[in-house]
Design the sequence.
């Protein structure tokens, strides 16, 4: 059905379809795309070149048709100058697709570059906005709030413990307490009292550190090396009497002598401490505790031989004498606090534990509780741990006005360091390197919280395909879904934008601490998702148009060669017709001339000549009848008149009519009717059926060798009637069974003209049979003869 439509019409439909597809594409591109003009350019080029190629193709078809018309008008076709080639048509059909593909691919690439450029611009803006947020007031305010609250808490503790002048403020009315409360309410997830003290100080030997960093294995005190031989002897004598011979009197005498030698202050403190212990040895616990608490040495920061502070040891001894929950006497508690505050040591936690044991449960006295001392100690102790780790993790060379991350057992901390200058010479024993640094210790949870708050306030959104990283204190924090995490492997990702900033406004010391924000491309799939979609769409369009172009190319090529073949057949037809006409006319003229001139006197001979004349003219009229019929069929003007006819009689007549022809070629023509009554009043166009039968018989005679046999048969059943013609001629190869029914088709070489004919006989047969609603079949093979059957249905 499709192939009955002329090829240019098919092409026109295909191009119209393509144009509609592209029009739709342009509409969608206009709606969804800012790169509209880029997208539509290839489409416009494609559609224009498609129509151009169509226009050229049609022009060529027209031109060829005109040539053919001219050729048909002429009797003989002069050979054409050169055969037209399909090459240019092919190029014109394929060119638009090639142009579309190239421009499409180029615009896709351009698309990708634009997407990257957009991402970079957005990345740079995001980095800048993040940097502004991190370095802005919200971040700084958060850190200041924490530092102030932490400071207030420590001021309260130390004030209550009597260590600073801020002592004595009432808990509820105090501004510091209000500050602490407010912070705690604002940060419900964080426990301020569990945080290490934030304001710390450090020098390279740790001696002037704040909080004090004490050695885990205390070194022997200096005074031990400053003793004279005499003093050393007396000291050993005392220890021997006290601990070996257990002679208190001798020990007391030795101490008194030792003190009389005016030993160094540390030695003296130890001697007096021993004396105190000896004196209180036999006393009742309460009396002994009172004496120990009253002693001025219970506040001493001098060290014993083992490197422990004397004051803490006095307090410890006193506490050991007291039973559980007896309550810590005020004096003893105060001495204990001072002793710990002035020289923290490995004994301090033991001393506090002892105080906790002795402390009366639930006492609501005015004096600061042991619990407060413990909280203060713990907070300092946590800071000590971090400071020790800091010294281990960051070399002295790196110590400067900078931020440092410290990995500690209590978590990760950000330390803001500031150089504070040199410690005055008098305060430092050996003047070696008295540089002093201030440190603000910030737990990571606090930093995270501040960052989150700052970013939330600035309302910065990181694009879904990106990850932002904050490089602060030499480490990178990756911002993932509004939360910062320590980043591990961002270095491999492409950078979209970056910005620098600094934490200033004096939140942490006086220093502006620099940081850097970088925005990385984390998920390129998300970034290129739209572009990927477009690639798919374009790919599909290119594929579809390539397919359409290829189909068009094939159809056009087929049509082109068919047309060429048809032209050839037609020109052959014309020469065949002229040839076929010339032969009978020539022989008829010869016969008629001979008769006219009276050359043939013999009456038998004359009769034979007349017979030949009749036969030739019959052949001529048969051929002309065929040509006229064919022309009617081609124009669609052939009409059939159906009426009941005696097909059997018609077949008999036809065979009789064709016998002379057969005889001429020495072929035996026989009729084998088997139609019976069915053939008698069969509704059909009898002349047309006869013409078809004549054509078949004529072919069978033409293609039979001399002495061959042609049989014409009639088989009738209730539903249909079969008229067949069988010969034992050369036969037809199966692959040509279809072609022989095509117009102008003749087997074999036209140059040799082995048989007469013009190639329209079977076309007419087919048309006649199909007009009767039947079909014509052929059963034939080379060398085995042929049998053509017309199957006509009963109306
Ligand atoms: P033509 O005028 O050449 O006979 P036709 O349309 O009648 O044209 O036949 C087409 C071709 O079919 C012939 O050229 C011939 O080669 C082949 N053909 C037709 N009938 C027979 C047959 N009975 N035996 C062999 N070939 C035949």
Sequence:
């Amino acid at each position: 059905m499709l192939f009955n439509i002329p090829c240019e019409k098919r092409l026109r439909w295909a191009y119209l379809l393509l144009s509609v597809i592209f029009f739709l594409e342009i509409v969608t591109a206009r709606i969804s795309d800012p790169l509209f003009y880029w997208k539509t350019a290839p489409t416009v080029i494609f559609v224009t070149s498609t129509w151009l190629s169509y226009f050229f193709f049609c022009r060529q078809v027209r031109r060829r048709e005109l040539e053919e018309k001219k050729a048909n008008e002429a009797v003989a076709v002069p050979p054409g100058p050169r055969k037209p080639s399909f090459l240019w048509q092919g190029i014109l059909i394929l060119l638009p697709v090639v142009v579309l593909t190239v421009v499409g691919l180029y615009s896709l690439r351009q698309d990708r570059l634009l997407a990257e450029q957009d991402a970079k611009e957005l990345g740079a803006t995001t980095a800048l906005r993040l940097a502004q947020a991190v370095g802005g007031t919200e971040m700084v305010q958060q850190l200041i709030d924490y530092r102030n609250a932490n400071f207030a808490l420590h001021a309260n503790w130390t004030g209550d413990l009597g260590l600073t002048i801020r002592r004595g403020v009432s808990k509820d009315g105090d501004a510091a307490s209000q500050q602490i409360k407010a912070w705690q309410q604002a940060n419900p997830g964080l426990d301020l009292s569990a945080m290490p003290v934030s304001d710390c100080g450090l020098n390279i030997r740790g001696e002037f550190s704040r909080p004090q960093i004490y050695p885990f294995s205390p070194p022997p005190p200096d005074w031990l090396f400053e003793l004279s031989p005499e003093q050393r002897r007396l000291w050993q004598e005392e220890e021997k009497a006290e601990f070996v011979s257990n002679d208190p009197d001798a020990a007391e005498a030795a101490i008194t002598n030792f003190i009389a030698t005016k030993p160094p202050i540390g030695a003296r403190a130890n001697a007096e401490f021993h004396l105190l212990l000896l004196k209180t040895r036999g006393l009742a616990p309460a009396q002994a505790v009172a004496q120990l608490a009253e002693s001025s040495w219970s506040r001493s920061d001098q060290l014993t031989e083992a490197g422990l502070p004397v004051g803490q040891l006095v307090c410890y001894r006193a506490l050991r004498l007291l039973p559980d929950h007896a309550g810590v006497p005020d004096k003893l508690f105060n001495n204990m606090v001072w002793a710990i505050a002035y020289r923290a040591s490995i004994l301090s936690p033991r001393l506090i534990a002892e105080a906790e044991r002795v402390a009366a449960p639930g006492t609501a006295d005015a004096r600061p509780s042991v619990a407060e001392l413990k909280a203060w100690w713990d907070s300092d102790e946590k800071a000590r741990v971090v400071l020790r780790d800091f010294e281990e993790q960051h070399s002295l060379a790196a110590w400067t006005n900078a931020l440092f991350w410290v990995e500690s057992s209590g978590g990760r901390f950000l330390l803001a360091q500031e150089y504070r200058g040199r410690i005055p010479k008098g305060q430092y024993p050996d003047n070696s390197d008295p540089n002093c640094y201030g440190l603000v210790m910030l737990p990571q949870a606090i930093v995270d919280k501040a960052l989150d708050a700052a970013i939330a306030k600035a309302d910065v959104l990181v694009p879904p395909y990106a990850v932002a990283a904050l490089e602060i204190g030499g480490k990178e924090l990756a911002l993932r879904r509004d939360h910062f995490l320590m980043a591990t492997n961002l270095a491999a990702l492409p950078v979209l934008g970056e910005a620098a900033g600094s934490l200033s406004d004096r939140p942490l010391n006086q220093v502006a601490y620099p940081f850097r924000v970088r925005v990385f491309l984390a998920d390129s799939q998300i970034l290129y998702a739209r572009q990927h979609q477009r690639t798919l769409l374009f790919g599909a369009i290119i594929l579809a148009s390539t397919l359409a172009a290829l189909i068009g190319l094939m159809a056009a090529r087929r049509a082109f060669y068919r047309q060429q073949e048809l032209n050839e057949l037609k020109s052959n037809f014309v020469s065949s017709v002229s040839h076929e006409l010339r032969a009978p006319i020539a022989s008829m003229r010869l016969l008629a001339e001979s008769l006219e001139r009276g050359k043939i006197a013999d009456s038998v001979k004359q009769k034979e000549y007349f017979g030949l004349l009749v036969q030739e003219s019959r052949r001529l009229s048969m051929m002309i009848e065929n040509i006229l019929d064919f022309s009617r069929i081609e124009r669609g003007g052939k009409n059939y008149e159906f009426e009941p006819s005696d097909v059997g009689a018609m077949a008999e007549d036809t065979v009789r009519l064709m016998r002379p022809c057969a005889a001429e070629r020495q072929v035996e023509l026989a009729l084998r009717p088997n139609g019976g009554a069915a053939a008698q009043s069969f509704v059909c166009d009898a002349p047309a059926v006869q013409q078809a039968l004549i054509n078949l018989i004529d072919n069978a005679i033409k293609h039979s060798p001399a002495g061959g046999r042609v049989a014409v048969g009639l088989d009738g059943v209730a539903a249909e009637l079969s008229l067949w013609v069988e010969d034992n001629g050369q036969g037809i190869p199966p692959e040509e069974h279809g072609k022989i029914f095509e117009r102008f088709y003749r087997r074999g070489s036209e140059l040799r003209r082995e048989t007469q004919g013009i190639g329209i006989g079977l076309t007419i047969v087919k048309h006649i049979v199909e007009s009767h609603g039947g079909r014509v079949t052929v059963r034939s093979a080379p060398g085995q003869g042929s049998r053509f059957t017309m199957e006509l249905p009963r109306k």
